[in-house]
Amino acid sequence: MSNYRPKTTVEQWRILQAVVDHGGYAHAAEFLNKSQSSLNHAVAKLQQVLGIQLLEVRGRKAELTQAGQVMLRRSRQLTQTITDLEQLADNLTEGWEPEVRLAIEMVFDRTPLVPVLQEFEHASRGTRLTIEDTVLTGTLEHISEKTADVVITYHLPKGAIGEPLADFKLELVCHPNHPLAQHDEAFAQSELSQHLQIVIRDTALSPREEEGWLKAEQRWTVSHFDEALRLVKSGLGFCWLPPYITEQAIRDGQLKRLQLAGSSHRRGQLYLILPKGDNAGPCARRLAELILAHCKGDPMQEAAE
């Protein structure tokens, strides 16, 4: 281990920052509720132990030297790190989590989450947020294994308690020139088996293929709706996709909705779940509250239907 001992203190750097930010010793002293002489002494001592001049007084104003500008920038990183560390200690004392994981079923339109995350950023106290796209049984694994703090899912596992959040919808689509698109009327499901289906990969560690809508023997698997959309728009296969993904391409004539006999679309309910139940932390609960406040029965979700 190094025997190095710091020559300076965090308080000295905070005083230097205050002198610069408030335009001089007098205003900085008032802001910090300290005497002007104590600030003068702290900055003088700082310059002495460093062996460089940080400030020079011009008229009544203290201005940074070139070296002072460099040191000030680096000192702000130091004091912010100390602030974050102290906030983390407070958070841990209060049970406030240092990290929150949000797992979202991919059929959920993320647009309403933008104001949620903007508000959460201010309320999070520096908590790190991880957002994970999940599909089918991958979402359910996060609930059963309690590996996520907040989950948006289309399916409530047995014994789980969830708050209804929004509806979701999946439509069967393909390229306008695809053979399936040539039907003017609804056609039988048996015709799907003759064509390539694009499916979204189940994110579970142990996926169960009975979940979902797999009607074709020929299947290509992709990891995200965006990749599925790209393939279907190029004329490859058909896919079940949510309207928030397809609506622009349908308006532009790049995709066509298919009318399947007895199943023109698939619809369901999305729920918000706290997998850890009563053990959910205060930050996870705050995030869940914000999601429900902004997204529950969201008109943008309904309009997409």
From TrEMBL:
Signal peptide: none annotated. Residues 8-65 form the HTH lysR-type domain. GO terms for molecular function: DNA-binding transcription factor activity; transcription cis-regulatory region binding. Keywords: DNA-binding, Transcription, Transcription regulation. SUPFAM superfamilies: Periplasmic binding protein-like II (SSF53850), Winged helix' DNA-binding domain (SSF46785). It holds the Pfam family HTH_1. Belongs to the LysR transcriptional regulatory family. This is LysR family transcriptional regulator.
